[in-house]
Amino acid sequence: MRTIMNHRSIRKYKSDTIDESILNDILLAGTRASTTGNMQVYSIIVTTDQEVKKQLSPCHFNQGMVTQAPVVLTFCADFNRFNKWCLLRKANPGYDNFLSFFTAAIDALLVAQNVCIAAEEKGLGICYLGTTTYTADKIIDILKLPKGVVPVTAVVLGYPEEIPELTDRLPLASIVHKDIYHDYSVGDIDQMYSAKESLPLIQKLLNENGKETLAQIFTDNRYTKKDNVAFSKILLKVLEQQGFMNNEM
Amino acid sequence: MRTIMNHRSIRKYKSDTIDESILNDILLAGTRASTTGNMQVYSIIVTTDQEVKKQLSPCHFNQGMVTQAPVVLTFCADFNRFNKWCLLRKANPGYDNFLSFFTAAIDALLVAQNVCIAAEEKGLGICYLGTTTYTADKIIDILKLPKGVVPVTAVVLGYPEEIPELTDRLPLASIVHKDIYHDYSVGDIDQMYSAKESLPLIQKLLNENGKETLAQIFTDNRYTKKDNVAFSKILLKVLEQQGFMNNEM
After folding, report:
1. Is this complex scored with an ipTM above 0.95?
2. Best mutation site among A113, A115, A206, A209 for testing chain B: the one with the most B CBs within 10 Å?
3. Is the pTM value of this prediction over 0.95?
4. How far apart are CA A97 and CA A101, in angstroms?
5. What domains appear along chain B, each with residue ranges and CATH number?
6. Which of A88, A90, A170 sits opposite B189 (nearest CB)?
7. According to the model, what pLDDT value does residue A147 have?
């Protein structure tokens, strides 16, 4: 609980490597996560080779931590192993569709969070790389992911060189709905986002970006429609190419 | 770590309700998960009303635990709140596309796993409901989810009435790849699945299902192509209907 409540994303790492047995314990903790039908349709690529990390770096927009941290974990939806097993056991796998991709993605993501919590409990720091889905096509090439395998998230792992402040969160009441969804009024939104909007660093951020509101920094700079549309196309093409878009009998 | 390693899915619950403050602590632990750009584009529907749980029950194939457990948590990808905020702040949200859905789904799933671990640490039991994506259209109606909101997983929560055995897992080496993906040989697959295939209850299962191999039970009974294709169509239609498939500028 303390580990979960103290989570912060770490973006600066010491050069210390991670002991093999510690890494193993962490990965093993990952495998204890629930998966659909206990099928375990995911894989974890554990990249420590500096050369491969350098190749991955542009996929993660050249964030320094990708080459600085000793380990990059790429969590993949993976039906390749399961399909191979089926075919070797006179069974006809029907997992080349969108539902199966999403099922495998859920597996991979629950495992990822287990791994991160286990890592933090062992004194390591982590940072998720949201860029993974944006450049899935390139990551597939670099990590040589076969058909049936799609990277869904990645995490850098290492000993923290910094301990940043806890980041802000919306009030719990803005996230949680009692029994059914209760849609938000203008007043609700104002109230829920007011603490975030009045953080001390926001004014500086607005000045730097020449923007009037924090929301505009998200829509115009950080997560633009143009990028989202381009990345949507890439991701949908990747699903097709990796054999997950045969949605007819 | 102990909590993670001792996870088992609980399918039988005591009738005891969950203390409000305990439930709050658990949900708060959920909100500490990393989310893309700290946007927190997810919501949690906390259903305790017996009437609403009864309505949800068929969506989860009438598994008894849905009405038996005191709480059902439905984790949703949610851009509705963020979009409303943007529009109220003179910002033009570009989050009506597939990438944005998947980003929000990642948020919701990492939060879900945090919630589950926190719950287990407090002595509660959990079970994921993989049925959530199969019947997302009906869940949307029952929980009154507006445009921009899609249920991605659900969890039942309560005090365990049983403590089942830990379930089997594939050997760690079958899940983990060093540096890049190393595809599986026939020998690899045989070795990786041999422990699973020789579990004592498998022969009973094969006899009951009239099948020759365990893999056939998955492909022919549990997760069939016919179902997967039907559920794929539902899920893709849901994404369209909830406003996440506008993948052009």
Report:
1. yes
2. A113
3. yes
4. 6
5. 2-165 (3.40.109.10)
6. A88
7. 98
